[in-house]
Amino acid sequence: MSTRVHFQGRLINRDRPVSFKFNGTLLNGYQGDTLASALLANDQMLMGRSFKYHRPRGVVASGSEEPNAIVGLGTGNRFEPNQRATTTEIFHGLTATSQNHWPSLNYDVGIVNNLLSRFLSAGFYYKMFIHPRPFWKHIYEPFIRHSAGLGKAPGAESRDADRYEHFYAFCDVLVIGGGVAGLQSALTAARAGAKVLLLEQTAHLGGRAPVDGGTIDGMDPDAWVAKARAELHALPNAQIRTRTMGAGVYDHGYVLGYERLTDHAPEAAGPRHRLWRIRAAQIITATGAIERPLSFAGNDIPGVMLASAVRDYLVNFGVSPGDRTVVVTNNDDAYRTAIALVQAGLKVPAILDARPEGGGALMDEAKSLGIRVETGAAAVKVKGSKCVHSICRGVQAGEGEVLEEIFCDAVAMSGGWSPVVHLWSHCGGKLIWDASQATFRPDHDRAPTSHDGNPFVIASGAADGAFHLNDVLQNAANAGKTAAARVGAEKGDAAASSGEAQGEAPLVPVWMMPQGAKKQLRMKAWLDYQNDVKVSDVQLAAQEGFESVEHTKRYTTLGMATDQGKLSNINGLATLANALGADIPQVGTTTFRPPYTPISMGAIAGEARGDIFQPIRKTPMQGWHEANGAHWEPVGHWRRPYAFPKAGESVHDAVKREVLATRNSLGLLDASTLGKIIVKGPDAGRFLDMLYTNMMSTLKVGKCRYGLMCSENGFLSDDGVVARIDEDTFLCHTTTGGADRIHAHMEEWLQTEWWDWKVWTVNATEQFAQVAVVGPNARKLLEKLGGMDVSKEALAFMDWKDGELAGFPVRVYRISFSGELSYEIAVPANLGRAFWDKLIEAGQEWNITPYGTEALHIMRAEKGFIMIGDETDGTVIPQDLGLDWAISKKKDDYIGKRAQARSHMTDPKRWKLVGLETLDGSVLRDGAYALAEGTNENGQRNTQGRVTSTYRSPTLNKGIAMGLVLNGPDRMGEVIEFTAGGDDIAKAKIVNAVFFDPEGEKQNV
Amino acid sequence: MSDVALALGGASFDGLVNIEELAGQGMVTLRGDLSDTTIISAVKDVFGVTLPGTRETAFDGAQGALWMSPDEALLLCPYEEALQRADELSAKLHGSHALVVNVSDARAVFRLKGVMLREVIAKLAPVDMSPDAFTPGMVRRTRMAQVAAAFWMDDANTARIVCFRSVAAYMFGILSVSADDASAVNHFTR
């Protein structure tokens, strides 16, 4: 029976009760409790069930390494699965539910898996579910999906109720971990003058020291921590962030910090999490150490806990795990737990010490308190199911004969300590095996290195394998001094505080208890609690030939759960090493990858949600479009009007109306989104000749020319009209989505290949609003506005001119993407809306009709003009589209020329662009394939082409399409079949792609 | 033109800092070798300032120059004068290898006022905003969240941010969220 004791509890405030719910039951705790400590105080030892066997599980640890006590937190929009009870601070109204059980935590039918456990051994899935093949999809997978998985996913319709943000920070020395090591390192570095930032994942500084005892500079550790905090606070060059975990260390001193601002107070205003994106010149990992479990049978029964966790719950939260706790250990540190329990008035029936000689001063102290110590002893097995009933004592050297059954309700185990080397390892820091402490620790000679080849991470304190209090402080001060010196901060006194604590006798490595445990014991000795991996599973993997630790991990799923094997890693690889007859360092560790513990998706997304999920680019006329019912289409980051349906009008009807109004009278298009890149310099013509497939250097000032751009691989990448502004200056129009990409493309070539060419570019896209005035009455409208001469004589097709219209400064391009008489008019962006309004007002007499992108697309398709992204998909070359006329034969080179000469590109079998007309006037499906005879080796129907653009033409009142077809241009008039959904086919005739005004008479007036 | 049609019509927000969309700002992009003496003296003649050093600004009242890259500067002047000054500079640089473009309409400008402005910017831009790293007289051409931006400080409590006009609403949105009163980090202040 775990319960609250009436004294101790340095982190709780007994004057502030807090009520919360666990599985629907109202429980009480105190301010300062974690969910785990509060549940234990309520005798709720059973906190969840395991992943595979659904075994009852209780909390085993007290920190972020916890594998068992993971719960679903919150409800509705604030529900989050897989949260560790040990790192969850409780608050009024907290709601938690245990996971992986059905129908209830107490009675779970999945426990039947437990009975089948000898069939569910390592690699079970791989072995079992291979045959018969069809069973996988219909029987095995649904079964596994139902029974596997820990937390539930949040509801499909729920939306995160909180907001998040990022913060960019820079410092000389980043200290990760606010225990006494981190504080000492931070103090030393800050005193030397370095700019220091210290991150502590919990709400409290000091780490384990206040629980473990000893003195620092003659002070109680808590007092020293308070003093250190005060000193750091007073230094202008030091900052401390609590509740902020160092999540990952990346190249060049980049670190992600994960600050949990309101997890402990969800109703508070402000962001819930803040992701710190830190650049640090030096990083000190003062991340402490994690105690290892011991592998004995029944080590997963609720009530079996790490010795340090038992001590933490008692000292920090005033919670006892039971009246009678047996301590099982291979080291001196666990004696501290026994001593603390007895001093708290609780019983310790025995300490089972695996070492034949036992321990040192701490053992003597325990004995003096009357605690029975058995040396050379082993826990053979723990009895119990949902709670501990008793522990069976045997000898460590034996096979598991039970010498004595000791009744108890909790077991505190300790297999030694492993430095938390995760952050050291994230960016390439290597480890060495420290045989004397039976642990991996950072290899100082192989630290992570930065851009200059110099180390940028230093481990400090227990994270560096220094465990005695004084060693921790000296090690930490050295780390701080080294880091500061590396950033050139060397002032002040680098002396460390001195720590006093009892000396400890060496441990004896114990990877199996007892060492010769028989199979039925090994099958109940858990390594990875969350994923249900046992000693016998790893041994089986070794027996089956899995020698690499990485392979064994994946085969057995050891260390692959949400806790990423924080408790199981070393025990697992030691078990593997023993099974292989290899040394532990030979087997090595698996890879440590960030984040240290899971961080929220919200923190990663930062501010990007809702209206600011991503930038939506708006033209100066956007307000008019919004006010006039635009139906939107995303184009790049822009939203462009797809059509402007009137009240009661369908989008389809609006498109039709817009096309007909433009063809018959006058249309208006917001073309502001088109890219406008200015290219200037003595080599500008030469440069554009390389960028475009056609010749631009011969373009005359005042004239426009349509051009194609290809990638180095010859594929069509962008198109647009180039205008020559003066002898040295060109203006290149790009597609809407292409402006930034093409500008970057230009700069890349200029900066990396043709750096000696005299060319400058400026992306002036947003300087201008651009309006296309289109239709037979376009000229009349401009003449009505008054100003410059827009007659055919003054401004012929493919001319451009600067001037004024209705008092607006304009640049007018006579270019047409619709086949109509068309003027594209650029005005300064701030005048865009006023100019648009003026055109609308003046055009009323011609029923001026703003049109959207769909009408634009239809009109260009009627004219057989290609559209980048429709006729092209990154695999199409201009020659496929019959654009040979736009490929200069006179030029020595252009980007893509060489690629277009390769055999596959000149293959006559490449599908080529043609027009397509259905026999019955219907509309072909977009992307439909043209069918060919026979089937391919996969039994699929052979194809001979595909539709690239397809519309109902309002002008011609029938379906029109363009497509790429095998030998298409040579097959005019031939009827071929296209897919039309299901087994349906549509017949279409191959025709010229120019459906409307093939002579171009309408645009050239 | 005194009543320039701003992207957001002069939006403003009060939180950790005061945010305001500023009225038209004359801006001229200069591309050229910024160490070329012809270019330096032409800029001095037309915009009244000496081209600034790397990541620096130079101001003389309403005129100024911002370093954008080793071969690009952003020249500032009153909105109404930008086109004329661009033409003038272009003419002076005739025969030199340089490109001068009036971009006054291509941008939106926001002013942040308040002691917390460093923090608001540090939530969005990967820039060291600590007082020992970024001061008046400096400019950063960088990004803020997902869009390109440049900013500089006019004094200890005032910064100006320039972004493209099309993303003015986005910029105003991210600035306002980052300036939420309940989101102080207190990293630069205590």
Automatic annotation (TrEMBL), chain A:
<comment type="similarity">
    <text>Belongs to the GcvT family.</text>
</comment>
<feature type="domain" description="FAD/NAD(P)-binding">
    <location>
        <begin position="172"/>
        <end position="423"/>
    </location>
</feature>
<dbReference type="InterPro" id="IPR006277">
    <property type="entry name" value="Sarcosine_oxidase_asu"/>
</dbReference>
<dbReference type="Pfam" id="PF08669">
    <property type="entry name" value="GCV_T_C"/>
</dbReference>
<protein>
    <submittedName>
        <fullName>Sarcosine oxidase subunit alpha</fullName>
    </submittedName>
</protein>
<dbReference type="InterPro" id="IPR006222">
    <property type="entry name" value="GCVT_N"/>
</dbReference>
<dbReference type="Pfam" id="PF17806">
    <property type="entry name" value="SO_alpha_A3"/>
</dbReference>
<keyword id="KW-0560">Oxidoreductase</keyword>
<dbReference type="Pfam" id="PF01571">
    <property type="entry name" value="GCV_T"/>
</dbReference>
<dbReference type="InterPro" id="IPR023753">
    <property type="entry name" value="FAD/NAD-binding_dom"/>
</dbReference>
<dbReference type="InterPro" id="IPR028896">
    <property type="entry name" value="GcvT/YgfZ/DmdA"/>
</dbReference>
<dbReference type="Pfam" id="PF13510">
    <property type="entry name" value="Fer2_4"/>
</dbReference>
<feature type="domain" description="SoxA A3">
    <location>
        <begin position="524"/>
        <end position="606"/>
    </location>
</feature>
<dbReference type="Pfam" id="PF07992">
    <property type="entry name" value="Pyr_redox_2"/>
</dbReference>
<dbReference type="InterPro" id="IPR029043">
    <property type="entry name" value="GcvT/YgfZ_C"/>
</dbReference>
<feature type="domain" description="Aminomethyltransferase C-terminal">
    <location>
        <begin position="912"/>
        <end position="997"/>
    </location>
</feature>
<dbReference type="InterPro" id="IPR027266">
    <property type="entry name" value="TrmE/GcvT-like"/>
</dbReference>
<dbReference type="InterPro" id="IPR042204">
    <property type="entry name" value="2Fe-2S-bd_N"/>
</dbReference>
<dbReference type="InterPro" id="IPR036188">
    <property type="entry name" value="FAD/NAD-bd_sf"/>
</dbReference>
<dbReference type="InterPro" id="IPR013977">
    <property type="entry name" value="GcvT_C"/>
</dbReference>
<dbReference type="InterPro" id="IPR041117">
    <property type="entry name" value="SoxA_A3"/>
</dbReference>
<feature type="domain" description="GCVT N-terminal">
    <location>
        <begin position="622"/>
        <end position="891"/>
    </location>
</feature>
From TrEMBL, chain B:
<dbReference type="InterPro" id="IPR027266">
    <property type="entry name" value="TrmE/GcvT-like"/>
</dbReference>
<protein>
    <submittedName>
        <fullName>Sarcosine oxidase subunit gamma</fullName>
    </submittedName>
</protein>
<dbReference type="InterPro" id="IPR007375">
    <property type="entry name" value="SoxG"/>
</dbReference>
<dbReference type="Pfam" id="PF04268">
    <property type="entry name" value="SoxG"/>
</dbReference>
